[in-house]
Amino acid sequence: MPDIAKPNWQGYLRADGRKGIRNTVAVAYLVECAHFVADEIVRNFRGQDVHLIGFPGCFPNDYAQRIMEQLGTHPNVGAVLLVSLGCESFNRSKLAEVIAASGRPVETLVIQKSGGSAATIAKGMDAVQGMLAQIADVPRAPMGVSDLIVATVCGGSDGTSGISGNPAAGRAFDRLVAEGAACIFEETGELIGCEHIMAERAITPELGTELTACVEKAARYYSTLGYGSFAAGNATGGLSTIEEKSLGAYVKSGDAPISGIIKPGDVPPRGGLYLMDVVPDGEVRFGFPNISDNAEIVEMIASGAHMTLFITGRGSVVGSAISPVIKICANPDTYRALEGDMDVNAGAIIEGTRSLDQVADEIYDQVRATAAGSATASESLGHQEFILTYKRFDPIGPACLPVP
Amino acid sequence: MSAFLKLHRDDNVQVALRLVPKGSMIDTANGPVATLSDVAMAHKVADCAIAKGELVIKYGMPIGTATTDIAPGAHVHVHNIASRYTATHYRAEEAGLADA
Question: Pick from A232, A238, A349: which is nearest to B42 by CB?
Answer without folding.
Answer: A238
